[in-house]
Amino acid sequence: MTRPSAIAGLLVLDPAVARHAFYREALAGLADRIEFLTPSDDIATALGDSQQFAAVLIQLDGIDGSRLRQMGDMLGALAGTPVVFFSADAERVEAITDGLAAPFDYLPWPVPPGLLRAKASLFLERARLHGELARLSGSVAALGSDLDRLQATAAEEVRRADRLGSLASEHVHRGKNLLAIMQSISLRTLSEGRPMDEARGALIGRLRAISRAYQMLTAGDGSGAGIGEIMDGELHEVIHRVTTSGPPVRLRGSVVQTFTLAVHELATNAMQYGALSGQSGTVNVGWTLFETGAERYLEFEWSEQGGTVPAVTPRRGFGLSLISSLAGPGAASPNISFDGEGFSCRLRFPQEMIVSE
């Protein structure tokens, strides 16, 4: 078996060689390479090299019980490589995944080719993001080596070591959450009833928005991201028709990904259905800090003018549901309007969601 040289491939274990053509067709053009195994091959060596793959796809149907138990022991050695199991029998999946530390998913067999392709796309994107994070971590380590030589006191060394430990923990936690978020977005997008080409475009746009949010958090050491920076990233295609205004303010890391995705949805809907779908419409975006006694909050407003106004209030799809989810504990419910001027949305963020500039 030829092993892939980069984390851009997929490893498929299926005892039925006749089914290998299905994977090739469903995943055509998606991965740099796809490697195939059957239970008679050297599975232990292949799984030992699993870090070279973005994901391992395993078809359990057709593998006998003794071989399945051997595979269970081998899978225990996986170091974080995601595994997708296929089977018509959920009990077989439960038996082999009991106590499995690596992230895994289960798709009932037979699986629609489009769903298999979307799932593989998520893991390939995950591997790409992890590669970028590894390169960034290498740069940070090199910079840290230079900073070490400039430390004046032992106290400063201790402070810096503590901070790096906190960052490492945060990166591990965020990496686990990222996979869960991408899986959730994928399933929600594919269940919206869109044609596959349209669903694929929507899914890629949403994943890219999450990727940009992840990169902003990583570059900002996890403490949050500025609203202006988020606006620049999500509105760059239509910035000539959008007016933004507001003071320098940062949102905490816990809300950055959701807010970034919400702005992406607002911009996408404006371009497809709202003010930016025509030639003359515009969008005003503003945010203001208010203080009332001991309380402090941020108000954010998205207002469209001069574009298409829906004859009826649209259904509560992914975008509106996402915006409503920003109303966390202590936050007022979003004010959403479809009046004669166009779509508008006003959000209020409590002090706990804001990082002082």
Search tags:
single chain; 357 residues; Rossmann fold; 3 domains; 5-stranded parallel β-sheet; 20% strand; globular
At CATH level 2, the architecture of the largest domain is 2-Layer Sandwich
Give the N-terminus to C-terminus distance in angstroms: 55 Å
Q: Summarize the amount of helix as a percent range.
A: 40-55%
* pLDDT < 50 runs, ≥5 residues: 1-6
SSE class: alpha/beta
What does this structure look like?
By secondary structure, the chain is an alpha/beta fold. The protein folds into three domains: 103 residues, Response regulator (Rossmann fold, 3-Layer(aba) Sandwich), CATH 3.40.50; 108 residues, no CATH class; 135 residues, Histidine kinase-like ATPase, C-terminal domain (Heat Shock Protein 90, 2-Layer Sandwich). The protein is built from ten helices and 13 strands. A five-stranded parallel sheet has the order 2-1-3-4-5, sandwiched between helices. Helix 6 packs antiparallel against helix 7. 25% of the residues are buried. The N terminus is likely disordered.
Summarize the structure.
With 357 residues, the protein is of the alpha/beta class. The chain has helices at 20-26, 43-48, 65-75, 90-97, 113-150, 154-190, 196-219, 227-234, 253-272, 318-325; strands at residues 9-13, 33-37, 53-59, 83-87, 104-108, 225-226, 242-245, 250-251, 282-292, 295-305, 335-339, 342-350, 354-355.
Detail the topology: elements first, then pairings.
Blueprint: E1 9-13, H1 20-26, E2 33-37, H2 43-48, E3 53-59, H3 65-75, E4 83-87, H4 90-97, E5 104-108, H5 113-150, H6 154-190, H7 196-219, E6 225-226, H8 227-234, E7 242-245, E8 250-251, H9 253-272, E9 282-292, E10 295-305, H10 318-325, E11 335-339, E12 342-350, E13 354-355
Parallel strand pairs: 1-2, 1-3, 3-4, 4-5, 7-9
Antiparallel strand pairs: 6-8, 8-13, 9-10, 10-12, 11-12
Helix pairs in contact: 1-5, 5-6, 5-7, 6-7, 7-8, 7-9, 9-10
